[in-house]
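During the reporting period the student researcher (J.K.) took over the structure-prediction task from the postdoctoral fellow and processed the backlog of single-chain submissions. One of the processed entries is reproduced below for the supervisory committee.
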Amino acid sequence: MKIQFKLILQVSILLVGLIGIINQMLGQYTEKDIHAYIEQYKSIAMAKMQEHHIPASITLAQGILESGCGKSRLAAEGNNHFGIKCHENWEGDTILVDDDELQECFRKYNSAEESYNDHSLFLKNRSRYANLFKLDMLDYVGWAKTLKADGYATNPKYPEMLTGLIERFNLAKYDTISMLGEGALYQPKNEEMVIREEPAQAPQSVTQPQTSSGKVFTALGSEYPMGSSPFTYRKVFENNRTYFVIAKKGDTYETIAGDVQVSAANIRHFNDADQTMQPVENEIVYIEAKSKTNPNKIHIVVAGETLRYIAQRYGVQLQYIFKYNNLNEKSIIHPGDQILLRH
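J.K. obtained the following structure tokens:
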């Protein structure tokens, strides 16, 4: 019995050691590490985009994946953030790292910036990647697919991994900044949104339009403070510490997503909108996650209102309204009901 226990203990210790080694090899990293990596290298990625016409979003996403947020041995000891091997024409320093084969030769740089520059030249100067430069620089999906098709990576999920990072961490905004310059994004287009004036006695928020999901919360904009988002030419307003735009005639969640450099899936999520829904003219469309609470403690339900309407009106995430009131998606509310907006 003692021998078995000792053997089990030795195996357990061995497994723990192996797991530690594997984690170190894979360069385990957290979401916090990703944010830190983006902050550290976004300026270099944008500079290389302006110089070599490679999307900054693609460069950052590749850097995150290939270097494990700078935590891999290749990045830590060789400043190699993109997994570029020596190849026959490399005359610089090298580092040997186990990859597809044992002790493969990789390029070694004096700094991460050298790695970023060589990554751009590597793509630009090789004929196998020529198809990349036929694509629009804002088409990060096309760049991700073409990188895989042209042999940069063997993982069949490589395009999805890149686009997943770009959309989750809103990396496409750095493409726009690179192309237009930071100041340009603050400039509105010639077609200014007209803010209509209402009689003094009339409420400024209107609630007449109906959709399949019930009454929607619309606004004229003049009753809200202006926001300042560098990622869109559209006028941005603020409600309950959350930025939103006002839908124009013909807008969809997809067109708004393109205008504000956020994925359509996120825009729908921020606005508790399913795939069957589209905004109506003058509807509030949040471009970031709503708050969890509102300074107003309660809302008294008026005929025609829905829980989503209340969430949009007060800028509170619908899931928290469910939580505060012990409700769910199937709950029905009635005029006169009190809806808690915070604990």
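The committee noted the following: The first helix runs from residue 2 to 26.
J.K. will present the remaining backlog at the next meeting.
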